Amino acid sequence: MKKIIKLRSKMICSAVVALSMALPGLTHAQILFSQKNETSAKVLQQHLLQERSLAGLKSKTLKIGEVTWSYSEGGAKNKPSILLIHGLAGTRDNWNRVAQFLTPYYHVIIPDLPSNGDTKVPDNFDVSVPNVTSQLRLFIETLNVDENLHIAGHSLGGSIATVYASQYPFDTQSLFLINSAGLYKMGNTPYTKDPQALKDLIVSKPGDLQDVSKQLM
Fold first, then answer.
1. What is the C-alpha radius of gyration for the chain, rounded to an integer number of angstroms?
2. CA distance 183 to 188
3. Can you tell me the distance from the alpha carbon of 162 to that of 54, in angstroms, rounded to the nearest whole number?
4. How far apart are the first and last CA of the chain?
5. In a shared domain, residues 74 and 58
6. Are 138 and 211 contained in the same domain?
7. 143 lies in which domain range?
8. What does the pLDDT look like over 91-138, one tens digit per residue?
């Protein structure tokens, strides 16, 4: 019995020694992994800063109510204003490479939507499309660009842009949707009932545009 106890004691001691020797290695590996991630994050941030700079964009923040907006802005303020809205789980930086072609001709505004990117909101913030659209309106009004605004939206940003344009049609100069998330339940058109009918709206040859215009008018 004593031999068994001694044997078990030796096994436990050996395990403790082995673990104590392994822990520094594990800690070192974790540190290296953490440092690698930190380095990658820094490289990414530097790259994004460079992209913004090349696009003529500057990073800004603006607190309105419970939302602290983080956004990029570029182009002359006396030019037509265009709002670019990113998609689900995206950030304002998704638009950087597009913005570089717009800033020479437009006053470009690209926000991080609430709960995305660097825009800060409370934990209980309502991220539904209607509420985000309302908050976006306050943001646009505060920047004093709410009239004659051009809007482009991608994915979820397309839904938000569509709701915004429907609520403020006289303030919306144009609407450009890219792979937009839909509002099927709210619509009642032949196109929502039968998406295949959208094929008739594709302009692929001379004369198609006139035909499409007749369908939509």
1. 27
2. 10
3. 29
4. 96
5. yes
6. no
7. 44-186
8. 999 999 999 999 999 999 999 999 999 999 999 999 999 999 999 999
By C-alpha distance, which of 184, 178, 183, 164 is closest to 87? 178
Token couple for 97: 């490479």
Q: How are beta strands 107-111 and 81-85 bridged, if at all? A: parallel
Taking the C-alpha atoms of residue 146 and residue 202, their distance in angstroms, rounded to an integer, is 31
Distance CA 123, CA 158 (A): 25
As a whole number of angstroms, the distance between CA 205 and CA 193 comes to 26
> Is the pTM of the predicted complex or chain greater than 0.85?
no
Note whether 118 and 200 are same-domain residues.
no
Q: Which two tokens stand for residue 163?
A: 């709701």
Any domain includes 71: yes
DSSP-derived letter for residue 11 is: H
pLDDT digits (tens, 9 = 90+) for 150-197: 999 999 999 999 999 999 999 999 999 998 886 555 555 666 666 666
> Same domain for 134 and 87?
yes
Which CA distances in Å does 133 have to 64, 101, 138, 157? 14, 26, 9, 10
Q: Residue 157 belongs to what H/E stretch?
A: helix 156-167
How many angstroms separate the CA atoms of 173 and 17, rounded? 72
